[in-house]
């Protein structure tokens, strides 16, 4: 390589020498410069080459001189001869011409001197301008701005303004530069402000992504800590968790297996707001405005714009309440907004203050609470309300990690809990209605022991007598009872789901569960039972079964209390423990069912009474009771047999109520104002029917009555009929008002009304015609009795 380079250098030098020899001397400069621009030490080699060439030429000149020496001597001799002639010529020329020549040459020399001085001055001044025009000239500032190096451009302009321009301020171009500097500064401000606006628009669009990441990290952190707490409660070793609100790494120790003793550690880098958002436009714009002395303007603008964006973020979508995604997007945007503000607060000095972020948060919190109150009220799906509650908890935990107070959000959760309970109650109302509609209202048949165990596993039923019976057998309650009991437990579980993660004590959770269960029992289940009882298709048999069912559900209430106690681990003996009101619920339902039994039983009696078809003018009775009444008595007898499963008091009350209603209905039949005439034969027939009623009462259709208590329901009818059958008016009138009277229960007005119907009101077909033929005195007796009865009635009314 070295030999090649040497050959190339020798060849180049040879070429340059030939070019020098063959070229005009005025153009030699560039050729010589190329020697110095070439490789180092090349000029030395060239000089050596040049010296060698000069020596060669000297030798050639010397040879030539030697060759032409004689001719040169001859030429000199001739020149000496010419000198004489030249001196003669000079003497003949005018001296004034020589002066002019010298003067012209002198002026040329002076002009050259002036040009040299001007050039030196120009060079000196240009050297002063070089730093400002070449190193930090205005075009370079423009280039710096174009490449977004705003701070470098500002430093350049500061150097121009304070260092370089004052040195050459007398020049016009410097004045132009000084005049352009404010415009350039404004241009930088406008460009940086434009970048800031783009940044604000970007974070407005992507704040939900920032919020989603922050909430996901908060949820993971909460889930992990819950697992750690659970492992700690079980006695496992756990690594401590260090958290700095997502601003550092989180190290999680995950338990794999206690038997192996191995522990895997996963270091997961948590993304921060700075990882998701480029904050450089904010920092740059803040720094530029600070350097330009206009920081307050920038701070005011930034805060104003962020307030506007906060109001936009807080505006919910109209259909947000329809899906959980609507709520999630709403929360993500808000969290993203305040995560960015928290980062700006901690990363900048004074751009936003804690007071400003607190003001924004308080404004946002009021708006959030109002929005959630409004939209949650539209939710009728308990699952959606539960998901909303979970979102609110994660939302609150996330912002709490960033230092924002969230107590009002947890207070709001109590209102959402009430809404959740309302939706649960509506849902379970439908469940209860469906159970009641599908129930057959008959005792549960149990064919095998497995079936019996299945029923007992779903409902706490214990009866020693039934357990002793052989299979198949029947349980007293219907299939709706274990279903209702199971659904109440499911309701408690559903209510418990809302209480999770609310940072409440076990006592408070226990109280919430008991209160919501009380609402289910006293309002929802009670209403369903009341509506069921009043449904027209529910008959006496169904009502009897409902009473039996409510009795067993009432007995199961203590097991529900134990169930809640096992869930919350709060002793029922605690002072503030709320008791379940199921006892009163089922008692009220049972009383309503009992009342409905009485009502429906009376209605059934009325239906039979409407079938009565007495021939009120009959001469004598048929000798047997009416068919409708016998059917009625048979119906009552079979109905009261069903009542054997009811508590004795209920059956006795129903029986007594039915007999009293039957007695009253028969009495009203006799005294009906539309009935104008009654024959003695009709009275006798009516008496036969009343005798059958008395026989039914004396047969003890429902056990438990003492003596003739049930027969007393017909005592009014019996005494009235005896009075007319025996025609014992003298005794009645003589003993009237005496406590020992034989006809104490006969009211004078009642007797008068019935006697008026038997009185001789027309001569044709008069029922007392036999008395006029056989004994006219008896007719006069009737008239006398009527007058006396009227006097008694008038005396009573006065």
Automatic annotation (TrEMBL):
- Enumerate the Pfam families for this protein: EXOC6_Sec15_N, Sec15_C
Report whether Transport shows up as a keyword of the record.
yes
Tell me which InterPro entries the record gives: EXOC6/Sec15, EXOC6/Sec15_C, EXOC6/Sec15_C_dom1, EXOC6_Sec15_N, EXOC6PINT-1/Sec15/Tip20_C_dom2
Instruction: List, in alphabetical order, the GO biological process terms annotated in this UniProt record.
Output: Golgi to plasma membrane transport; intracellular protein transport; vesicle tethering involved in exocytosis
Task: Specify the Exocyst complex component EXOC6/Sec15 N-terminal domain's residue ranges.
Answer: 49-215
| Protein family | Belongs to the SEC15 family.
From the Swiss-Prot or TrEMBL record, give the protein name: Exocyst complex component
Organism whose genome encodes this protein: Lates calcarifer
């Amino acid at each position: 390589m070295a030999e090649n380079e040497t050959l190339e250098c020798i060849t180049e030098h040879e070429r340059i020498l030939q070019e020098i020899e063959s070229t005009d001397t005025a153009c030699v400069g560039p050729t010589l410069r190329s020697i110095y621009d070439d490789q180092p030490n090349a000029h030395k080699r060239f000089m050596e080459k040049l010296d060698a060439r000069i020596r060669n030429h000297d030798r050639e000149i010397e040879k030539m001189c030697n060759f032409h020496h004689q001719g040169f001597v001859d030429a000199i001799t001739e020149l000496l001869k010419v000198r004489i002639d030249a001196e003669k010529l000079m003497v003949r020329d005018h001296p004034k011409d020589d002066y002019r020549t010298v003067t012209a040459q002198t002026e040329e020399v002076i002009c050259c001197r002036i040009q040299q001085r001007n050039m030196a001055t120009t060079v000196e001044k240009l050297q002063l301008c070089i730093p400002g025009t070449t190193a930090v000239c205005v075009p370079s500032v423009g280039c710096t701005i174009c490449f977004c190096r705003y701070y470098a451009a500002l430093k350049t302009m500061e150097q121009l303004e304070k260092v370089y321009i004052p040195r050459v301020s007398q020049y016009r171009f410097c004045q132009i530069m000084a005049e352009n500097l404010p415009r350039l500064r404004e241009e930088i401000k406008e460009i940086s402000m434009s970048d800031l606006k783009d940044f604000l628009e970007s974070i407005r669009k992507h704040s939900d992504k920032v919020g989603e990441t922050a909430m996901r990290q908060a949820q993971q952190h909460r889930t992990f800590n819950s697992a750690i707490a659970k492992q700690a409660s079980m006695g496992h070793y756990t690594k401590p968790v260090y958290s700095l609100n997502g601003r550092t790494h989180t190290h999680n120790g995950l338990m794999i297996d206690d038997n192996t003793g191995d522990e895997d550690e996963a270091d997961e880098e948590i993304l921060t707001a700075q990882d998701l958002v480029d904050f450089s436009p904010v920092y740059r714009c803040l720094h530029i405005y600070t350097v330009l002395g206009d920081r307050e303007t920038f701070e005011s603008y930034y805060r104003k714009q962020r307030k506007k964006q906060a109001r936009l973020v807080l505006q919910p979508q109209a259909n947000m309440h329809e899906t959980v995604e609507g709520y999630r997007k709403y929360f993500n945007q808000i969290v993203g907004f305040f995560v960015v503000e928290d980062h700006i607060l901690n990363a900048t000095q004074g751009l936003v203050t804690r007071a400003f972020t607190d003001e924004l948060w308080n404004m946002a919190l009021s708006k959030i609470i109002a929005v959630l109150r409004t939209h949650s009220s539209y939710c009728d799906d308990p699952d959606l309300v539960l998901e909303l509650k979970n979102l609110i908890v994660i939302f609150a935990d996330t912002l709490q990690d960033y230092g924002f107070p969230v107590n009002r959000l947890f207070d709001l959760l109590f209102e959402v809990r009430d809404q959740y309970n309302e939706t649960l109650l509506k849902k379970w109302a439908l469940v209860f209605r469906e159970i009641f509609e599908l129930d057959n209202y008959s005792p549960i048949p149990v064919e095998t022991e497995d079936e019996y165990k299945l029923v007992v596993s779903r409902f706490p039923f214990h009866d020693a007598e039934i357990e002793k019976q052989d299979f198949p057998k029947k349980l007293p309650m219907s299939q709706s009872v274990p279903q209702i009991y199971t659904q109440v437990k499911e309701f408690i579980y559903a209510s418990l789901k809302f209480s999770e993660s609310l940072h409440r004590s076990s006592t408070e959770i226990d109280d919430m569960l008991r209160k919501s269960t009380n609402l289910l029992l006293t309002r929802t289940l009670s209403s369903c039972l009341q509506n069921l009882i009043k449904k027209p298709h529910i008959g006496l048999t169904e009502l009897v079964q409902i009473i039996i069912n409510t009795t067993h559900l009432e007995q199961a209430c203590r097991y529900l209390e134990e169930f809640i106690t096992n869930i919350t681990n709060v002793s029922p003996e605690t002072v503030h423990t709320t008791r379940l009101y199921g006892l009163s619920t089922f008692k009220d339902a049972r009383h309503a069912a009992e009342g409905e039994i009485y009502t429906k039983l009376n209605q059934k009696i009325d239906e039979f009474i409407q079938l009565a078809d007495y021939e009120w003018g009959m001469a004598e009775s048929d000798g047997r009771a009416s068919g409708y009444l016998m059917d009625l008595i048979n119906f009552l007898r079979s109905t009261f047999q069903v009542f054997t499963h009811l508590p004795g008091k209920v059956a006795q009350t129903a029986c007594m109520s039915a007999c009293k209603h039957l007695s009253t209905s028969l009495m009203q039949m006799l005294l009906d104002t539309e009935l104008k005439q009654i024959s003695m034969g009709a009275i006798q027939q009516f008496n036969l029917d009343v005798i059958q009623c008395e026989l039914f009462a004396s047969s003890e259709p429902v056990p438990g009555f003492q003596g003739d208590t049930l027969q007393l329901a017909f005592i009014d009818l019996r005494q009235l009929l005896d009075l007319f059958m025996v025609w014992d008016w003298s005794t009645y009138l003589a003993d009237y008002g005496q406590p020992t009277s034989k006809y104490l229960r006969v009211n004078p007005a009642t007797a008068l009304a019935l006697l008026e119907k038997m009185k001789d009101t027309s001569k044709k077909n008069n029922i007392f015609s036999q008395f006029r033929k056989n004994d006219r005195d008896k007719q006069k007796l009737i008239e006398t009795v009527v007058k006396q009865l009227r006097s008694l009635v008038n005396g009573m009314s006065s």
